[in-house]
Amino acid sequence: MSGVAFETQRAALADVVAIPVTPFAEDGSVERDTYRALLRRLLDGGITTLTPNGNTGEFYALTPEERRLVTELTVDEAGDRAAILAGVGHDVPTAVASARHARRLGAQMVMVHQPVHPYVSQAGWVDYHRAIAEAVPELGVVPYIRDAQLTGARLAELADHCPNVIGVKYAVPDAARFAAFARDAGLERFVWVAGLAEPYAPSYFSAGATGFTSGLVNVAPAVSRNMIEALRSGDYPAAMKVWEQIRRFEELRADSGSANNVTVVKEALASLGLCRREVRPPSRTLREDQRAEVAAIAAGWSI
Predict the structure, then answer these.
(1) Quick one: CA torsion of 146, 150, 154, 155, rounded to 10 degrees?
(2) I need a labelling partner for 177 at 20 to 30 A (CA). Which of 80, 122, 200, 245 fits?
(3) CB atoms within 10 A of CB 274
(4) How far apart are CA 230 and CA 6, in angstroms?
(5) pLDDT at residue number 3
(6) DSSP string, 230-261
(7) Which of 180, 161, 227 has the alpha carbon at shortest distance from 200?
(8) What pLDDT is recorded for position 303?
(9) What pLDDT, on a 0 to 100 scale, did the predictor assign at position 4?
(10) How many whole angstroms separate alpha carbon 130 and alpha carbon 110?
(11) Could you give phi then psi for residue 110, rounded to 5 degrees?
(12) Average per-residue pLDDT in the chain?
């Protein structure tokens, strides 16, 4: 497929890439109706790119059946209102099966989670992603990069084999490394998505990113939209005003090695009456004394 065939997918990545939470019912199962309601809230808030089975969706705590369900609900609820970037991962056959399932449903893209393996070689990283991308040549493929050792040349090598590798979710917390990586891989060749959300978006946009992922968007779609609009217009002072607004919320999420990354988002949603606060191990709900601060932040955004 030529690059032209992926123009709509590329445009969808150069935006707020929402990572929906996966709400759980009292019995611990996926709460389907609540999930649909949360998706509608995102869509009504102007969000047009959704990533079911992302980390904010507790990808690694879901069963294979639940991951399929989440993808199905997302595609069905979004219809033609949003592009779907389905998260896939684990071993190669599992990732390939998930990608083919997403393709059958009508998703346009897959995001490949960082390989979970204690021994990841750079050449093996290429092999892993190549096996997945070649299985679904019609879909745009977006590697999720969290490995600071990976070089831009390896990404370029992957794309030489697989022209459907069209974007990158870059989540190494180092703006200088990102700038170098993007230029080594090909700045114009890929859509660069700041994979560490709003806190890193201004610095990564200054280095070439044109989209960012967001978990915060579940709580306050308008806040994330304000950030992307400021960055698109090159108004960094305005973007930093949004950054100041979301700083404490994101600090709470990032604390203790991001232990409460999903927990804080669900707590904020619970404070607004939008879903239950429960998360699955190895995540855990917030202590009572921390809940009030999260609720106060969320209440301030909803005014």
Answers:
(1) 20
(2) 245
(3) 18
(4) 26
(5) 46
(6) HHHTT-HHHHHHHHHHHHHHHHHHHHHHHTTH
(7) 227
(8) 52
(9) 56
(10) 13
(11) -130, 145
(12) 96
Q: How deeply is 7 buried, as exposed, middle or buried, from its count of CB atoms within 10 A (0-12, 13-18, 19+)?
A: exposed
| Vertex 46: Cα angle to 44 and 52 (nearest 5) | 85
Overall average pLDDT of the 163-170 stretch: 98
Q: Does the pLDDT value for residue 219 go beyond 80?
A: yes
Residue 157 pLDDT > 70? yes
- Contact residues for 196 (Cβ-Cβ < 8 A; gap 6+): 171, 173, 204, 213
Residue 2's pLDDT band, with cuts at 50, 70 and 90, is very low
The Cα-based distances of 132 to 51, 139, 197 in angstroms read 17, 10, 25
Q: For residue 1, is pLDDT > 70?
A: no
Show the tokens assigned to 50.
Answer: 């959704």
Which contiguous run of DSSP H or E holds residue 98? helix 92-105
- CA–CA gap between residue 281 and residue 284 (Å, rounded): 6
How far, in whole angstroms, is CA 221 from its chain's centroid?
14
**Across residues 125-134, what is the average pLDDT?**
98
Q: What are the structure tokens assigned to 189, written together?
A: 């060749």
Where are any strands of DSSP class E within the chain? 16-18, 49-50, 83-88, 109-112, 140-145, 167-170, 191-194, 211-214
Percent of the chain with pLDDT over 70: 98
Tally the residues of the chain.
Answer: 303
- In b/e form, how buried is each residue of 97-119, taking b as 16+ CB within 10 angstroms? bbbbbbbeeebbbbbbbbbeeee
